[in-house]
């Protein structure tokens, strides 16, 4: 998947690669507090070397067909991203995730980007189930799952230790036949 236009506002979805570590780190600096409310990414990406290492792990996942990461650019500025945190091609399952800096909130960018990602996962890679795991307090991310037509599959009680506190996680998912029935046919 190369650059994909996300709409008439100039937003694009592009692969996020190790050579972009400086840009990724700068983006994380702009959104560190906001992103870190529910996502541990700012705690991992603490400097340019850590950013490069994180992106390299996803380059390795891409090469092994076990995950992917893509950035969301708005007016040629990296403002967020989406990923397939895990991919099990044999089982046909994957987990999608996202993050966004505050300047880009409220534009529908994550919903549009995840739509492209799920289309690819189901349509190209043959995934049967795409999961979306979110902290129960993260209403914005839960609303993305709802807009995507995902089903709330359950809530796990306090499995996630984050910054010294336990959090409940909601699991949302969509199955390939459900996704395909809702998506317009391309031809």
From TrEMBL:
<dbReference type="InterPro" id="IPR016181">
    <property type="entry name" value="Acyl_CoA_acyltransferase"/>
</dbReference>
<dbReference type="InterPro" id="IPR051908">
    <property type="entry name" value="Ribosomal_N-acetyltransferase"/>
</dbReference>
<protein>
    <submittedName>
        <fullName>GNAT family N-acetyltransferase</fullName>
    </submittedName>
</protein>
<feature type="domain" description="N-acetyltransferase">
    <location>
        <begin position="11"/>
        <end position="177"/>
    </location>
</feature>
<dbReference type="InterPro" id="IPR000182">
    <property type="entry name" value="GNAT_dom"/>
</dbReference>
<dbReference type="Pfam" id="PF13302">
    <property type="entry name" value="Acetyltransf_3"/>
</dbReference>
